[in-house]
Fold these 4 entries.
Entry 1:
Amino acid sequence: MVTIRDVAKASGFSSTTVSIVLNDAPLARYIPAVTKKKIERAAERLGYRPNQFARSLRSKRSHTVGVMVFDMTDPYCTLVLRGIENSLYQASYLPILTDVHNERSRFERYLEMLLDRRIEGLVVLANWLFLDINLLGDLEKSSIPTALIGCELKGDAVSSVIVDNEIGGYLALEHLHSLGHRKIAFIRGPKTLADSSPRWRGIRNCAKKYELEIDSRLVADLPESRDPLSSFQAGQKLTDELIRHKRWFTALLAFDDMTAFGAIRALSKAGYCVPEQCSVIGFDDVAPSSLCTPPLTTIRQPMQTMGMRAVKIVLEGIKCVLEKRELTAQHGRVAPELVVRESTRSLL
Amino acid sequence: MVTIRDVAKASGFSSTTVSIVLNDAPLARYIPAVTKKKIERAAERLGYRPNQFARSLRSKRSHTVGVMVFDMTDPYCTLVLRGIENSLYQASYLPILTDVHNERSRFERYLEMLLDRRIEGLVVLANWLFLDINLLGDLEKSSIPTALIGCELKGDAVSSVIVDNEIGGYLALEHLHSLGHRKIAFIRGPKTLADSSPRWRGIRNCAKKYELEIDSRLVADLPESRDPLSSFQAGQKLTDELIRHKRWFTALLAFDDMTAFGAIRALSKAGYCVPEQCSVIGFDDVAPSSLCTPPLTTIRQPMQTMGMRAVKIVLEGIKCVLEKRELTAQHGRVAPELVVRESTRSLL
DNA sequence: TCCCGAAGTTCGATTTAAATG
DNA sequence: GCATTTAAATCGAACTTCGGG
């Protein structure tokens, strides 16, 4: 491996000068262009690449950000990760990816490993997380700029980026209503999930606005679970029960896309066509939604944007820390968007 | 930050002794249990965590593996990444994730960054890659154990893990044939993609075995593209053309699942039901396949296994390098598996 | 010779303080 | 005093060498 001393020797200057020149440090002002040229050419010729370990040891900087995903297999992750990666790339940071499999022990172990690597910031993709306050103890005291995607935390230690679930819920029901649906079934999220209640609130607001009555016999709740696939299965099972109760509905509003896929499966098995006999709307707009037939009408979370936003917050946090300014958490809330495809149909 | 010297001071021993004890180095044999206890307790009490930069600088090891994905948005990545992550976790390695967006410049920049970080190994997820030999120049000379997932490379510089496409193609056609299908349409992969030709070879072998005639007017080719979504669109378009040519078929064998989704969309738009009027089989078994209705019959690539396998190879390579043994590439080929779901139906 | 522990060197780059003409 | 350059200290851990009992 070629070191700075090799470059020094080859160029005939000291390693100090080489360092100053190659880093374009303040003192480089005083160094004549000829010297710079010589040094740069020597470095080039030898193929010199500074040792990042040495550099980091000295500067205490890693140019690395930790990314912690709660369950990688959730299709929700894909685009968020793309957003994170892209923003990091532009800032010349590299991400260390960890997947905690929704396991507490894994979370703790990974967090220690990341802290040991002196990550400068942390992005946590808390999709499908049943959050436990303890998990954050380590985080808060670490004083590493952190952004949580998908759930919000009280206090100003940890930033967050979430979708506006209330607006999303409102948009979903408004769409069904505008299509003429009045008998609507609902599959709500698990009570322990933070998204569930605001989404439902939005739905109720919309119902009130349009004087739509919600039949409580057409409302089902997803059970708590830490497996993203389970919401597909639960969606199927609950829809099946709804159908068997013979209380018919012309549309179904699902908690998320996975649930909607399960609902469509159940409807289809029972001999009902979507959207001819029953409209279905989801939430998230994960990749499969546009691929399925019929493609799913849904409320899109701007996932890539959310990833980018989280990185932006973390990067600003890092700058704060470097300049020893006070660091306060930011809480971003992005607007969801109705995506009309073909799983919903007008009754009018 | 508490350093080894702080621990030395607090325990009353020298930093040498502390280092030996905490790392359980060979010399630790000679150190009495009392001393060890004292040192360990001091370290514990102070919350000492060794500085990885210093450690890496000295040992020249990073305990980091680079992971390079060609297009993160491809659903094919998800499970492979899970496999990679899991194996790395068990070996206490951490992955740096990079997504090259199928762009040459990004590949090169990321490769340099990873090399600068002194990654000990590299896993490349070359899904949907139109490989260019030049890209590998840097790789070969870097002498970093590397495993390519999804495509194979001549020579013994770079290891690889691929699915046995020929068997997969065979299985797919055999399944359709066993269901009684004789008029079968095919959408082949792009000619520039390495997977395409062996997959087609398997199909032809199977056709010969069962004396099935392949009607060349029912064979279409996916165009070259570097966007995974494009195979959905192309699948839809090609199927549409196939339908319009009025040369009917009872089953369609698609190059991959994305293509199959496109085909199903086209059939549905043209008023044909899957599988009642036309069976469709895919290849890969990406996540959406089991979520769609009807769920897709397909040839599964054991993606998680492939990720694990690649990491295993890389880890062995790292051990090789450490022990200065000769490093030779391994070329793994894993068996695909027929997954029968509901997009195919028996004619018998 | 065996056991225990410490002093000092090394890894490679950055930075401070200081020395030249 | 100024422009130009550099010796030496530093970051934190790990390893080599050595000395005392």
Entry 2:
Amino acid sequence: MNETTRTTSPCPVARTVDLLGDKWSLLIIRDAFDGVRRFGQFQRSLGVAKNILSIRLRTLVDAGVLSSEPASDGSSYREYVLTDRGRELFDLIISLRQWGEHHTVVRGEQYAPLIDHATGEPLGRLTYVRPDGSPVRADDTHVGDLRPMA
Amino acid sequence: MNETTRTTSPCPVARTVDLLGDKWSLLIIRDAFDGVRRFGQFQRSLGVAKNILSIRLRTLVDAGVLSSEPASDGSSYREYVLTDRGRELFDLIISLRQWGEHHTVVRGEQYAPLIDHATGEPLGRLTYVRPDGSPVRADDTHVGDLRPMA
DNA sequence: CCGTATCCATTCCGATACTG
DNA sequence: CAGTATCGGAATGGATACGG
């Protein structure tokens, strides 16, 4: 499970998992969606060691998920912001959140909700749908034979 | 980032990540959706060491994601199948897959597609929608103040 | 065929010190 | 504040041996 896997496994799930399937990377991405940009912000928010954070940020930048830009406040430091590729990880973070809300938080327990601007209330249960609006369930699919990407 | 985090962080994303945000757990769940049930099947499919697999399976069973059932073939062994809670991780696996298909596989490259039974063709781009059918984007949301789970 | 246990190398991680 | 370097302890992972 290494660089080799990332480029040789024909399974897109394996490739994604190999790239960012670890706790810190996923939480960095979560924070990035919440507007966190600076090294120190990530560090305090996550409670992660600075050396580890340094490595993870570099990996995510190398992977094209984050970009490293000059700080907007004129200081000589860097800001880490989601690229277009990174922003497409929104659904992944949402998936983690939806399952977590359902299965790791009990009734009455305090939790940090995701507020829907459309209503001002916590986002309800979301559904993955095809372009025609029909929902997809596990039984509707199976992994097929290898084929070239269109 | 441990058991304590899992029960104390108010962020559902962090709780989920803490529970199954590692490569092997995610790939075990992927395999489970693909019909893998037996220890040896997982072992060969993933190429993971048996001691690690043993630990991961136990963790997932303890978390209620997999159940450990008597083998259906009458042998004295165990089969690991997704529980209801586990099956609700389908969207998570799908989101990993969708990103991976788009951003880790290049045109013309061989990959393992997910076939949609409705069409017999690879599943296209999916969208997360609210109950009313409207799609949700990152800009439509923000993390709000703590509140009790309804 | 299942699964556990052990050994060893590697990696991960947190704390700390240090430089700009 | 931002980031790198180092050190020691813990966890991970692979290989293998072993018992059910």
Entry 3:
Amino acid sequence: MSQEDYMKKRVTIYQVARESGYSLATVSRVINNKDNVTEETKRKVLETIERLGYKPSAIAQGLAKSFTTNVGIVIPSAMYSYVANMLSGMTDIAKIYGYRTTLFVTSPIQEQASEVVERVISSNVDGVVIFDDQLTEADIAKLASYQVPVAVIGRDLTGENVASIPLKYEETLRETIRMHFERGQEKVVFLKMTDGNGALMNSLVDVAKNECEKIGKGDLFEVLDIQDSYTKTYQQFLDIFKNRNNFGFYISPRDSIACGVLNAARDSNINVPEEVQIISIIGTKYSQIVRPSLTIFDVDMYEVGSIAMRMLTKLLSKSLQTRVYPFYSSIIERNSTRKAK
Amino acid sequence: MSQEDYMKKRVTIYQVARESGYSLATVSRVINNKDNVTEETKRKVLETIERLGYKPSAIAQGLAKSFTTNVGIVIPSAMYSYVANMLSGMTDIAKIYGYRTTLFVTSPIQEQASEVVERVISSNVDGVVIFDDQLTEADIAKLASYQVPVAVIGRDLTGENVASIPLKYEETLRETIRMHFERGQEKVVFLKMTDGNGALMNSLVDVAKNECEKIGKGDLFEVLDIQDSYTKTYQQFLDIFKNRNNFGFYISPRDSIACGVLNAARDSNINVPEEVQIISIIGTKYSQIVRPSLTIFDVDMYEVGSIAMRMLTKLLSKSLQTRVYPFYSSIIERNSTRKAK
DNA sequence: CTGTTAGCGCTTTCAG
DNA sequence: CTGAAAGCGCTAACAG
């Protein structure tokens, strides 16, 4: 860059206009790549833009155009690795479509979580993709009512300005339970996080319970409260396994948690999968790395994130066809569960 | 919310002014909590704001005030778990200070990575924290020259508008190597990622090499190219360990990579740490979960992220005292390395 | 093809 | 304590 590098104030379109000898409008046209400008003019303007080191102010553009090429992303504050994967998917796609991404992080406390809606609304994003179980449907409706198009992950929702990507674990979960009882009779224990892990997991607890009852194994179903931490779960299970009992089929919401169980079993000399079996609903790299490797319900979170963002961009350009795009999980059988005979 | 929920256009300050019977200026004052407003007036204005569901436009505010309460965060596209931790640290602090966060993700390709600078400049963020080895010092200087305050992680830099958080692994690395050769004579192998993992790791390779040479073990130092992937590293090492040779002391840039080596060793029936030792420079939860647990250089990335963001906010409020805040790594000895006698 | 002129929604002197 | 009016930097008719 030129000597303007040490300028004290950012150069505006006015100065470019003055220096280049053209009008505001013309400069604006070349900035926006309108075609009604002579090559010659364009060249000259571009040259002085370069010379002055001018960069358009997105904020002024936003105000004038009434859109910002800015999309919001709402995620929970705890950045689990699957959230990170999803985030990658979203940002990658956003970048491709030329959107900046504003990250809104919700608080773990329900009441405070809803505040994010206010922040999103006044942030002037063109749209938002939401992955956050804490938010209520009313929150989402509110966004939509403020003309903020929304893509929601993990729910089945529709409406003007709303697209959704439901995550379907139910069927896989039911099948898993059925298959378990075909092979064995150990109790099924659903690990449930005490701090509101939100709607999705809670509904899954019910699904599991109902399925057990349906096949007459209601008495073999348990819910166990755990903390949202690998270390704490590990300690807890060290204790649980101390007397080499409490064997069963454990269902964990996340693989990092499942790793706690797995390692506790191992360190208590308990054989996985012969004595204890574990499956995790959400699986990330942890599930591959840990030994024995972990059976998981497979949903590619990167993919989910990128689809969500893509749907949002379509929503923004009014070209979205299907407004609901469910992801069905499949099961990836690894070594923490017993194989079928 | 009221019946305005289904309004088709966002309400502006004008309407609030009209409806409340006050002027723009007064409404603006109450929005901004200026004290020169009667309680009475304030109450009334607030009431109509509530009634109309008015939310100020951050973008218009930004234009008028010439700052946006928006900070940028620049991170590499591959969201490793330590990046995710850092990101959490940054967003948590940003939120506390009332900043929105715009996420800029750099491309893995060097030339394209620098483009992020342009995007940041025209995005009108008030400042930016950068964690990206791809960016050059010139890139950072450019940001600073455009009056964008910068906090850089992982480098030792200063300047007007610049703060930095160098990550000091050198000394720990030297010490590790020294201690290794006091206990054994196996070769030291530095795992180096082929795709530019950037300046930091490259400089660490040199540090390791120099240290080995310094203590007369230059011939026992090797660099091994690896790919940036757990699975690929695992495969590669399965091959390397096939004949139960190539024992040594491996230094990995990241724990997910180290897990590849660890699992390959284990699955090749090689004893860790007796036959092969592994240490990782960056450590996350993987290092705790994997068995044997992994010795790492400890730097709390969440902490790094939050300090960086805090420094940026201080920079923005012109109240930053110390502009360089180095983080020194310490070693967390676990079971992938042999203990001292 | 280019220039003039209103805004976009809000803040901020400056008067009163 | 409150209001009028001039911008913030840029875009978008509307003329020419």
Entry 4:
Amino acid sequence: MTSQVFSVDAPGLPDLPAAAPAFSPLYQQIKGLILQSLQTGEWKPGEGIPSEMDLAARYRVSQGTVRKAIDELANDNLLIRRQGKGTFVATHAEQQVQYRFLKLLPDEGDPKSEGPAQRKIIDCKRLRANADIGRALALRTGDAVLQVRRVLSFAGAPTILEDLWLPGNPFKGLTAERLSDYDGPMYALFETEFGVRMVRAEERIKAVVPDAAQCKLLEIKSHTPLLSVERIAYTYNDTPMELRRGFYVTDTHHYHNALN
Amino acid sequence: MTSQVFSVDAPGLPDLPAAAPAFSPLYQQIKGLILQSLQTGEWKPGEGIPSEMDLAARYRVSQGTVRKAIDELANDNLLIRRQGKGTFVATHAEQQVQYRFLKLLPDEGDPKSEGPAQRKIIDCKRLRANADIGRALALRTGDAVLQVRRVLSFAGAPTILEDLWLPGNPFKGLTAERLSDYDGPMYALFETEFGVRMVRAEERIKAVVPDAAQCKLLEIKSHTPLLSVERIAYTYNDTPMELRRGFYVTDTHHYHNALN
DNA sequence: CAGTGGTCTAGACCACACT
DNA sequence: GTGTGGTCTAGACCACTGC
């Protein structure tokens, strides 16, 4: 099979001096096309995508090329392969990878034995983005944003205080009630209710002293230091969709990170 | 090619009821063999390993199978592929990935513009492992360990205080002078001088209040909270080889983490 | 059983580095 | 040019799932 989705080097044009070669392997182009179908919602979270054979026929490449594209997407947690069943669009709702982005673990004991956190929405309101929040979410200052504050408790002990900001437009209709009623990861709700899938995130961690309001909500003394975890979460295309500032009490828990 | 390195299912034995199938693909077996050659030092850090063709001949499998094994090892940062040149054993001494395990970055500006940290060895002595340290390093309580304390400064400001413990045996002959004189990542010194290559690590992060000694060494007020970063670093075979407790000042720096 | 992903092979050609 | 890793193909067979 010699056909290609895009021609790699523009034929007919003489080689320009400044032009970078920009060689892109076929499987990368296929990866891009699959990514597009994910973005546009042709295949929705949890659904299966066509078989490798079907995709190979669709893009007119060999199965091996499709396979390599899917391999990379599965590695990025955008797709999940299930032998004998097919390839599926990844979801935040799956048992195995629930709370993929939450790295706080109990110092001892199995995280599962601790059970799910109790969640309490403290506040949920609409407001206008200030400069900081606008920058983080790639909005203009003054654009509508949704602000949520909540507390997570483990075994009755308040452990995480989170403030989060969402762009107002994609999350029209999100209310405190909606958040409270939903049983499962917040990012799973975002997927099913608003079609926003968080794909990756970056966190900046510092040690800070709590203010009075934080002390009260977390039921700690003012000299107890907190882990400040500032997260920006992105959808497809590196579009920021959430700014989250978490404050973690780390006397019986720790932030876990694996380095490779 | 139908030959295999190991037979997958023991022939001649009737299928036992409790036996798990334990099917292992060929390329995984090849991966194991390459790993063995890395452990035994047949190929040393920085050196090139045989070409894919040579390895295919050696293990009597196809090049594609060797390729898949190497792909995974390269993904784990154990090998580095260089097109046109060959495949090399990864090192901590390379420009691109220096300080692979140090996730502290300046809040603003390019980390490179900050330049390398100034390092100062505070202390370096031999002692016997207590229970905690013995457990972390898989030693017996009372075994010889080396303890090092040092401070790293950025732009003259002390920012990181580290205590680290190493098993005495593999690191015989390591002295404060040796550490001070060496110009480069500590893990690079461990490779070249002691043949110990750190392959992965795990970190537990908490927010803590500093004690008096820490305040003095880091030149901070006693109410400044610190990020406590406890790391266990592993060589091949998941053998723990270093326990490190870092205390980071996070007023102008932050711990950065990417979530996928 | 058919259909899916997973493994393995063999061969062709491309991109890159060195000499 | 030669040798390396990188891409692409085509076909065979294996392992797993569900009908």
